[in-house]
């Protein structure tokens, strides 16, 4: 199973909810990234564009956006050999953003 990870940073409070900047990415070594053609992220249906495709291998297929809550997203990996793998991932807003980024 391909590993996914995320970072988040609290931005501002809007009403009762805090909004966060977050980035989700493939947390694998270069050799594994080379096997992946693209990643399709399916976000919570309340997002304006809940289906996002990333082809940015050099950036670990990262998706960066913002929101107010945690949820389970689905990542569909499209491999260079034509196969696919679906992996659920819980977006954890308590995972801090790295320093200097």
Can you put this structure into words, describing what you see?
This protein is mainly beta and 101 residues long. It contains 1 helix and 7 strands; from the N terminus they run E-E-H-E-E-E-E-E. Strands 4-3-6-7 form a 4-stranded antiparallel sheet, with no helix packed on it. A 3-stranded antiparallel sheet has the order 1-2-5, with no helix packed on it. It starts with a strand and ends in an 11-residue tail after the last strand. It has a single domain, classed as YEATS domain (Immunoglobulin-like).
Secondary-structure topology with pairs:
Blueprint: E1 4-14, E2 17-26, H1 30-33, E3 36-42, E4 51-54, E5 63-67, E6 72-79, E7 84-90
Antiparallel strand pairs: 1-2, 2-5, 3-4, 3-6, 6-7
CATH class: Mainly Beta
Subunit arrangement of the protein: single chain
| Shape field | globular
Portion in helices: under 10%
The number of helices is 1
Structural class assignment: mainly beta
- Measured by DSSP, the beta-strand proportion falls in over 45%
Q: Going by CATH, what is the homologous superfamily?
A: YEATS domain
> Mean of the pLDDT scores?
95
Biggest beta-sheet profile: 4 strands, antiparallel
The strand count comes to 7
* Helix and strand run: EEHEEEEE
Distance between the termini: 28 Å
Order of the strands making up the biggest sheet: 4-3-6-7
Might you state the CATH topology name? Answer: Immunoglobulin-like
Radius of gyration: 14 Å
CATH architecture: Sandwich
Domain module tally: 1
Low-confidence stretches: none
